[in-house]
Write a structure and sequence with these properties.
508 residues, DNA polymerase, domain 1, 4 domains, six-stranded mixed beta sheet, 20 helices, 15 strands, binds uridine 5'-triphosphate, binds manganese (II) ion, DNA binding, DNA-directed DNA/RNA polymerase mu, BRCT_dom
Amino acid sequence: MVPLKRRKVTSVQDDNQDSKVCKFPEVAIFIVERKMGASRKAFLSRLARSKGFRIEESYSPSTTHVVSESNTGEEVLAWLNNHTEGKALTGSINLLDISWLTESMAEGKPLAIQDRHRLKTSPKPSADPPATTVKSYACQRRTPLKHHNTFLTDALEILAENAEFNENEGRSVAFRRSASVLKALPHVVRGMDDLKNLPCLGEHSVRVIKEILEDGTSSEVESTRQSEQYQAMKALTGVFGVGVKSADRWFREGLRRPLDLIHTGQKLNLAQQAGVQYYNDLNRPVTKREAVAISHIVEKAVNAVLSGAIITLMGGFRRGKEVGHDVDFLITHLEEGAEEGLMPKVLNWLEEQGLLLYQKTTRNSYLESKDGPARPPHNLDRFERCFSIFKLEKGKEGSGTSLNTSYDSGTTEGITGTTEQPGPSWRAVRVDLVVSPFSQFAFATLGWTGSKLFERELRRWAGQEKGMSLSSHALYDSKQQRYLRANSEEEIFAHLGLEYIPPSERNA
Ligand code: UTP
Ligand code: MN
């Protein structure tokens, strides 16, 4: 902070002209020092101001006339680009020779610009593209997996996570959107100037970024990271089957770690029991290699019960991630309806092979005619879906006890191998299986590829910009009052008026 006294003095800058003196306020002139030198620039500035011209100390977006001496247009552009980091240059800027200013001063008023005053630039618009333009919806941008600003995005995502733990969704999404914008930048953020013109950066995020740029860390992020609540909520929600609500209740009761759930005799559902039992394995990242091994198992299982089914790896692995927290699969069949009843058969097969440690299936409950398109953007979709835990053998397949469950009800759930502990020969892996009818396959593919923020932004774009409603089942156009069909993700992007973004660039 500049002390008040000094601030007062320095705020009266010599370019801050009295309106009586400045006769032509609409013409904002910036004199380029390059080649001219500081003393000649100062002399010309004083002279011009004495004649009522508005001379600006630094180049800004409000500058209308850029004047230089003995420079080519290219040189002036390069110089300006350098001094504004490519931010402020607009196509409409007047690059002029000093003769325009001297002649204007002689006339006592800014002259109309003639061709001979103008510095020539090559026809290509500019050597460097003018600044980075970042579109405001994540689904309009390309976000690669690896980016340049993890030191900022990791920090913002801790605050987003913490806001989720406090059930403050608005705040959480705001932090995630800020982080996502930084992920899309083609360069590292070095100073606050780099944030100019970027969308979605709220005041709070900017404050955090500023602190990290200036001090290396943010006190808010560090105190969050160290806080008992954050650490306990992270550990407790890290148990498969435990959501924020249960974790928060347990935290208030004094529980901190997953084992506290056992020691204090909490009543756990089957998912949570499996979650505690396989806690370490399920919190160890799943590698691409393991995902591929699981793919082979799922293919074998599906092919054993239905020929011609199509099995696709979804989620983070489809976006090119090397590790994930689970493995997601979407299963369909070219022949509409052939996929019906597939899930129970696949699970049966897997159980017989001893490959399942836990599974919970929900039946397909989506009926277009009944449900319509409207659903909250973060709602679970309603495909036939199985949340499961696979027993992945490191060597040959092992054997397990088969499940004794019924598939007649809408929901089935079972846990096996309760006495088994992961050992050196196998590990537990979270696997999600989703079955979609072929007519919904493109929507399901788009919906299950992620990232979560990318999906959320797609739905926000559809609703706010297009008057459409997008889900993992369908796209509904409210204006036309009809469903828009699609056989590929490309067609869905086209319906939405968006440029196609491939999965590897949906890492928003
Ligand atoms: P994941 O939670 O598995 O995330 O959801 P991920 O991107 O694969 O990341 P990791 O590596 O596993 O942590 C995968 C996709 O499935 C969608 C999510 O929106 C995400 O795009 N999904 C998930 C649904 O559509 N519905 C759900 O109920 C769950
Ligand atoms: Mn996943």
